[in-house]
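HUMAN: Please help interpret these tokens:
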Amino acid sequence: MLERRNEREMKLKIRRTSAPPKDLLEERQVRIGGSLPSNLEVQVRRIIETVKERGDSALIEFTEKFDGVSLEADRLKVTEEDVARAYDLVSEEQISAIELAKSRVELFEKNLLERLNFEVKYEGVEVYSRTRPLRSVGCYVPGGEASYPSTVVMTVTPAKVAGVPRVVVCTPPKKRGEVEPITLVASDICGADEVYMIGGAQAIAALAYGTGSIRPVEKVVGPGNRFVLAAKLLVSRDIATDLPAGPSEVLILADESADPRLVALDMVSQAEHGVWGYSILVTVSSRLADEVQRELEKVVRSSPRAGTVEEALSRNGLILVLRNLDECISFVNEFAPEHLEVMVDEPLEVAERINAAGLVLIGRYTPASASDYCLGVNHVLPTGGFGRVYSGLSVLDFVKRLNIVKCSREGLSKVRDAIRALAEAEGLPNHALSVEERFKG
């Protein structure tokens, strides 16, 4: 049922300040180097260890406990018949939308991959830079009563572009013991090789260590709630995982030229993801701040998800009015948002000064909601301040780089003396001898 609150007036309790909140920035710093909350770590570690010990029976138990769904071991894996039925429940318009989103991501990722394969030749040395795909990856797709076919597109597509031969999707089941049809259709269109009706920390454990039904993978990627993120952090000691992708965030950097209603709508669109994400406006204009605040009141009041949006904005919404553009950019780079929208007179000039964000979107017609689906860039992005050190998910996460080197006699002779000098400095005389021997006779 839609969350509507038209029947009453609401007063949105959104935070407004003229100085960067120290508590907020300190919290972001803690997330970079901090550990998991002890109670969360204990709970998730227990789930992981149980899955490692009991396999499928643990998955069945946790699925009933956390998702309210009773499954048999032979129903953990989605069948071809399940996929065929899913197509009957999905509209042609939805199928076309998935195909469009996939084609855009595929085009971008192929271009990126091509640029990783190149050759360099200099003074008798030839270096061939090549990529090799991982053998298997697991893609976590949030689900249950919600559906996120776009996350399937963003995780499975770059893996297949990379050439990964085994791509596994894990997603929570609906109450009736089935996967959301559109998620299955997206998995099929994007080329997933296996799909399992398992969610939460138990899915991450199954992908990492394997069970009777699920073979382990080499790497786990995809966004999720705090239990999924905690599980990924804990299993990362044994297998590779991707970036920390948690509750969605948007920060909008705007000046007098921005449309206050569009700013408000973009803040609301991110807030509807859930109550833990951030929706922030940073501006040099008090007038714009006032107008955005008024527009937020109007937009939230008529929003189809007013309850969630109001709570999210009241909890983690912020309007920050600073003295000049330099201060705004400094705050952005310190906060390191997942999505940064730049709505100023010269947006590209500002974007070039940003070094800490998951994704930068410039101009009136580039909202974060569009990048979530059909602009070709990936929407699995670093949150919680990790944009300082992580990039968004891409084909790079599904390949290893491999350099192939060939050196001629002449090429080796040009570096012969330098090798000897460095080998002697490091106390490794046999390094020098292995080179010198090649010039005898």
